[in-house]
Amino acid sequence: MIPDWLKEQEEYNAVPDRDGFLTRSILSLMSMLASFRTKTISYGSKYPAPLKLIVCLAMIFITSLARNMLIVCTVLAILLAHICFLKNEFLVRTISTSLAAALLSAVILIPAIFLGSPQSMLMVSTKVFVSVGLVGILASTTEWNKLTAGLAAFHIPDVFIFTLDITLKYIVILGNISMDMLNALRLRSIGHNNSKAQSMSGVLGVTFLKSRQMSEEMFQAMQCRGFEGEYRRNSND
User: Fold this and answer.
1) Is residue 96 part of a domain?
2) 71 and 133 inside one domain
3) For residues 226 and 7, what is the distance between their CA atoms, to the nearest angstrom?
4) Is residue 54 one of the residues assigned to a domain?
5) Domain count within the chain
6) pLDDT at 42
7) 16, part of any domain
8) Does 169 lie in the same domain as 214?
9) d(C-alpha 24, C-alpha 186), whole Å
10) Cβ(40)–Cβ(203) under 8 Å?
11) Contact 102, 132 (CB under 8 A)
């Protein structure tokens, strides 16, 4: 016999709720992971990573020490010429990041206008734009593994290079885990949820526990393989 309560038709009307917070969180994670996943363009890839690192650091150093606006404008012209050869996605990312940093520095230096030195605000903002743009071009034309491998040319200890390389790789792995949990949370959210911040703290807590577990497993794997501090890289890097 089927109970009467099973025969009754039940209608559930979920209360509409906004999921903009989860959507923005997912989009921000996707944009961050895209910067690591996206392959770099062929432009500039034929040059070795150590050479590009040296040129980038040298131009940033010259720009930061320059007191003549002509030198800064010359480096800016070279920067803009290189940006023209980037693909649309890299071009937009480099320009937007550089403009955001330059505008932030300009806002901070607004008092310089009232103190009688507006040229200081223009000089510093232009230098910030050039420095961030140079780093953006370097990141867009060089893969991350080649950048970390290129640090060996500066006689940087292998432990530092290994830590940096593993950190970049695990950012992508943990980002994928966080994005999967955010998607699962969004699919399971029915009705009105007043504790969105608590749900996000749970996602961050699980990500932290997962990172700790993975770090312990990696440490044990390094011990089993007899890691002695020498970080061997592929010849292709």
Assistant:
1) yes
2) yes
3) 66
4) yes
5) 2
6) 46
7) no
8) yes
9) 12
10) no
11) yes
163's enclosing H/E stretch is: helix 158-188
Predicted pLDDT of residue 103? 92
Q: Where are the beta strands (DSSP E) in 14-144?
A: none
**pLDDT confidence of residue 31:** 63
Q: Which domain holds residue 99?
A: 47-142
Residue bearing tokens 């292998």: 158
Query: Is residue 211 located within the same domain as residue 133?
Result: no
Answer whether residue 32 is part of any domain.
no
If you count them, how many residues does the chain have? 237
Q: How many angstroms separate the CA atoms of 35 and 143, rounded? A: 10
Tokens of 46: 């034929």
Say what the pLDDT of residue 97 is: 87
Shared-domain flag, residues 127 and 168 = no
pLDDT at res. 39: 52
Domain boundary among 100, 115, 142: 142
Residue 163 and residue 137 share a domain: no
The predicted structure's pLDDT at residue 129: 92
**Torsion angle (degrees, nearest 10) of CA 164, 99, 84, 147:** -10
State the Cα–Cα distance between residues 37 and 7, nearest whole angstrom. 52
Could you state, in chain order, the average pLDDT of each consecutive group of 10 residues for the chain (237 residues)?
Answer: 75 58 62 57 65 87 88 89 82 87 89 80 90 87 76 78 81 80 73 64 80 86 79 58
What pLDDT does 223 receive?
A: 83
Could you give the 3-state DSSP secondary structure of residue 58?
helix
If asked whether residues 113 and 172 sit together in one domain, one would say no
Q: At which of 98, 116, 142 does a domain end?
A: 142
Amino acid at 125: S
* Distant-in-sequence, close-in-space partners of 172: CB < 8 Å, separation ≥ 6: 33, 36, 37
